[in-house]
Write a structure and sequence with these properties.
The chain is an alpha/beta fold and about 425 residues long. It has 16 helices and 14 strands. Helices cover about 40% and strands about 15% of the residues. Helix 4 crosses helix 5, helix 4 crosses helix 6 and helix 9 packs across helix 10.
């Protein structure tokens, strides 16, 4: 059963987070080293061990993709296309332009936006398949203008990829799809193998092993964030429907045993009503075992004196998703400082953002919303700056450059400025 706490500044137990096991880091380190050294051979070993399938060719063929797409219900194809269009409409506002500054004679400075040549998308496919993640990761990459988009996702025991994932990949315009998951897939993208090309950046959520693999390969390759396990925080007042609140908390608990679901409310009556309702709804979930483990290990209901204090608690926790189940959520929107994605009102469940609203659902987790942002077009581009001075323009400032360099004790820097105007 989910635990209820009364908030006090001294009660720091309510902010306690799940602790990653050191064994996860050690296991991932060994997997990365093996893939780096042995390439496809290592991937095949891990496919047999973890996915229980023997894969000769990791790449999904065009025929497999077309067959899967044709087998998907037309109604779901329609919804996938609608979701993709909403994601596109939202993310196109994030596009940046290069700029040039030329306000002084003989001086030109600027910045250019350069899409990544090749990006890798990790799409979970273990305990559940997520075609929504395909769209969330690929559509911004396409908008950014990335040269090639490569996707990895775990195969089924028969060596196939979930048809809904393949359909979403076709709609999103992904260039290459590979049947490999877990930490080994991240390693393959980071270092390349005989079959899988090395990428410039890896994005997408995953389990603890995938998150740790991304952490360990960072520096060899760029990553978006260490995403996962998922978490949700609901701020709700006494008018909130306990059935709605319980359902929203369970929507994240069913993701992963390590997921976190937190209710913060100023109503003790609502707290106990939600506690009871969670037990009722849990027993009806197909993924009850996973959701129950999440609720019992990481779930919390925190009772505060008022909604302002509830928002303060939320800002300390810095949730991946926050729901403001209030009549006038815009009144407190500016007070929410640390959150990945904010869902406002009584009819805006987090699931809306997962699938259809258009805002991205790849979000900072585990409190990292204090300093991280949702996946965006910015994640698929890099920036280079440029500077140009004519001889006459540099002549006006070379002495200042040299003087500055000497103050830092870097005589060669200074010489590189003065030498251009010395008589030989």
């Amino acid at each position: 059963m989910i635990k209820i706490y009364n908030y006090t500044e001294e009660n720091q137990e309510i902010f306690k987070k799940p602790v990653d096991s050191q064994s996860v880091a050690d296991t991932v380190s060994a997997i990365i080293a093996n893939v780096k050294a042995n390439g496809d051979k290592a991937l095949r070993e891990y496919s047999l061990k973890f996915d229980r399938t023997d894969i000769e060719d990791f790449r999904a063929t065009d025929e497999e993709i077309e067959t899967a797409y044709a087998s998907v219900e037309p109604e779901f194809v329609r919804i996938l296309n609608e979701a993709a269009e909403n994601i596109r409409d939202f993310h196109k506002h994030q596009l940046r332009s290069s700029f040039v500054v030329s306000e002084k004679d003989g001086i030109v400075c600027g910045q250019k936006i350069i899409p990544f040549a090749r990006v890798g998308l990790y799409v979970p496919g273990g305990t559940a398949a997520y075609p929504s993640t395909v769209l969330m990761d690929a559509v911004p990459a396409k908008l950014a203008g990335c040269g090639e988009i490569v996707m990895v996702t775990p195969p089924s025991k028969d060596g196939s990829i979930n048809k809904y994932i393949l359909a979403a990949a076709k709609i999103a315009g992904i260039d290459k799809i590979y049947k490999v998951g877990g930490a080994q897939a991240v390693a393959a993208l980071a270092f390349g193998t005989e079959s899988i090309p090395r990428v410039d950046k890896i994005v997408g959520p995953g389990n603890a092993f995938v998150a740790e693999a991304k952490r360990q390969v960072y520096g060899e390759v760029a990553i978006d964030m260490i995403a996962g396990p998922s978490d949700i925080l609901v701020v709700a007042d006494e008018k909130s429907n306990p059935r709605f609140v319980a359902a929203d908390l369970l929507s994240q608990a069913e993701h992963d045993r390590m997921a976190s679901a937190v209710l913060v409310t100023d109503s003790e009556e609502l707290a106990y009503a939600v506690q009871s309702e969670i037990e009722i709804q849990l027993s009806k979930l197909p993924r009850e075992e996973i959701a129950r483990a999440s609720i019992e290990n990481n779930g919390k209901i925190i009772v505060t004196r008022d909604i302002s204090e509830a928002i303060e608690v939320a800002n300390v926790i810095a949730p991946e998703h926050i729901e403001l189940c209030l009549d006038n959520p815009f009144d407190v929107l500016d007070k929410v400082k640390n959150a990945g994605s904010i869902f406002m009102g009584r009819y805006c469940p987090e699931a809306l953002g997962d699938y259809l609203s258009g805002a991205n659902h790849t979000l900072p987790t585990n409190g990292s919303a204090r300093f991280s942002s949702p996946l965006s077009v910015d994640d698929f581009v890099k920036k280079s700056q440029f500077t140009y001075y004519t001889k006459e323009a540099f002549e006006k400032v070379y002495g200042d450059v040299a003087y500055f360099a000497q103050k830092e004790g870097l005589e060669a820097h200074a010489k590189s400025a003065t030498i251009r105007y010395e008589e030989v």
